[in-house]
Amino acid sequence: MFWKYNNASSSQIEAVLAKEDVTLQELMDEEDIINECKLQNKSLMDFLTRPDIIEELVTLTTIEPSAELDERTRFKYSNIACEILTCDVPALNEKLASDENLLSKLYVFLDSEPPLNPLLASFFSKIMGVLIAKKTEQVLDFLKAKENFVSILLKHLGTSAIMDLTLKLMTQVEGVEVRQNILNWLDSQRIMQNLVCLLNPNVDKERHDNVAQLLCDFIKISRDNQRNSTTERSDPDPLLNTLESPETVSLLLDNMLEKDKIESCIVGGIQVLLAILDVNKVSCDEANDVERRQAIVESTTLAVLKRLRDFHMLLLEPPKKAPVTTTVGVLDPPLGNTRLQVTRLFAAVISTNNNEVMKELISLGTLQVLLDLFFAFPWNNFLHTQVQACITSALKGAHIPSETGEDNALYKHLLVNCKLVERILEAWKDNDIQQSEAKGVRQGYMGHLTNIAISIAELCSSSKLGQFLKDNLPEVADSFDNFNENTLQEVKKTREILLGGAHPNTSNEDGDEYGDIPFPQSTLLHQQMYAQYQVHQLTPHFIESYGFNDDDFNDGDDTLQTIDHRTGMNFDLSEGDLVQQHELFKQMCAQNINTLDDADDQIFEDRDHTFQTVIEKQGERHDAVYSSDSDEDDSPPPEDPFMDIDPWSSQNRESESAVAPVTISDPWSTNEKTASEANTGWANFSSPSFANFEANFEPLGSDSGGTASTQSVIETDLKVENIENNDKKNREDNHSAKSSLSNKSIETVAQVVKEVVEEASKEIAAGGDQGNVLPNKAAAQLSKNVNKIEEDSHQLQTGSAVRTIRPEPDQQGI
Fold this sequence. Notes:
- Helix content is 61%, strand content 1%.
- The protein is mainly α.
């Protein structure tokens, strides 16, 4: 229950208990009082175990509230008080059981005259049941001290709650020693004899019904306890032995069959007799148990045998019943429950195959009366079932010798005196005629009549019944043979047809609903494999950890997810898988290299790149990449050759080449400076003084050293295999671009030389050394700028011309 796991105290209860003059009624108005009792709230327990409070609780459960109160809330506090006292709290149980005054206050409730208030009786029964279960010895000692306890219980057995308390006292006391003690004490009080005597016409009907129910339940529970006893010691039940004894059975028959015929006591008594005779359902294989059961059946049957005439007269003269209107007409008199129960008793005693019983039935003509009732009430299938059981049991056990010394006296009685076969044939014929009429209805007994006819036909072929019928009633035998061969066989074939093509599954004690279905062999194999899989998966660790775990509700990012060893995951890769992955990697590399080659060609189509343009293109490419995740694999290669170019190159790249004289956009300032302006030592190749300088140099061919250097840089930078050669068109475009670059380089060198000569002339005019200034300075300037032009050419040919070196900290101001 919920309160077993809720350990939080109720603030409302604590607030009420904190009051100085708190009353029990104020506390019982709180909704959480029952919950707090089950939680054993210490403050609440201290309050409830006060002598005045617990006495008030007992009073509420035993004294009927005023009738002037609203009926909807009249028993509110009585109900809550009962729930508090039955919360199974050790403190409350101990307080009640140890205080004799409180027990006496409870016991006084039984001293009142019947009938008891059923609701208060249920409260009393519930409280006493808990005390008997938890404080058995203390409560039983108190009850034993009361001499009139059993008689008071019997007086109030008309109340169902008192009947339940009596049954608990007789069957549900725990502990072998304590239980045996209370059973012996109850048997000494002759409780069974007193209960049987209550099935008397002079006792009220309510007690008839409750006593019969009490005895039947006691027989069933006691026999189950003896059969299912797990202890080595299994003492006999003295109360059960007393009830099953012939003396008690005879006492029962004497009370229920007095002169006054009261249906309630007769029906109740027959139900108890049937419960005593129903010992074959007890599954005990030991020899002494079998002998004991046979002895019980024989003793009970002999006791009934002495009163068979009385039961037979009940079939002829049952208790008076008023007419009953049914859908098929008025029944006057109706069959009644008395005659139905008497028929059930006859079926039970006939099944015992007791010769004395069969003789008495034959002499009384009981079977003839049963057949008359069978046809007189065509729509009472309860009666038809019991009569069919009587007839078939009698025919199967027909070995009774007659008074003249001849066998088959029962055959003679049923077939000759009762005319069983003739009545079956005549009833069948009448039913056919009635069904052939307009709106004809089949008689209600035809199903059971068919069963009786089939039983007779089977016995005629397997026993002396057939020969007896031919010897004594030859015409009837011929008629029955003709009926069996034509009509009855057709009915049997029709019955054998399976509705839906398969026999419906009946109750199976083994619980295997599909045990008889012929599964194909392949299906059986699959089932076996699946069963093995389940056994393999349901390891003890899995069973113990089955269900939810607190770790299941943790954040997945905060926990380390492990792989269960049962999954058997294999991460080993075969050699073929490695080769396949290696080939796939080379294909991807080749595709990316082709993209870089295309970028090299497109560089020369748009050479006027600045640092700002590179940044803008880089941002556009990033926007395109992150705009959609789904376009990563399906989109074509980018056309922009600068997408993968980092505007901030590494230090290694800076060491390989100097800064190209390209326009730089300062990301930290709006001012722009050229590389030549940033470094004062660099020559201004755009100076007019170098306009005609190219005449002093030969044009560079397309196969200059720059080309070789370019190829070396490409091989060093990429270092991949299987680079496909560019097509013819790309080679022609590269050749044209390289020629243009060479011409531009010549013009730049000439411009440098021209500026150097002009500067030398100015220094000579100022008085410098003409022989040293011009050669040294011109050579230095010319060598420096030629080297930079060659490096610039290499960078342009490898697609690196637009790469910009990130300035060092001391250069960030340029």
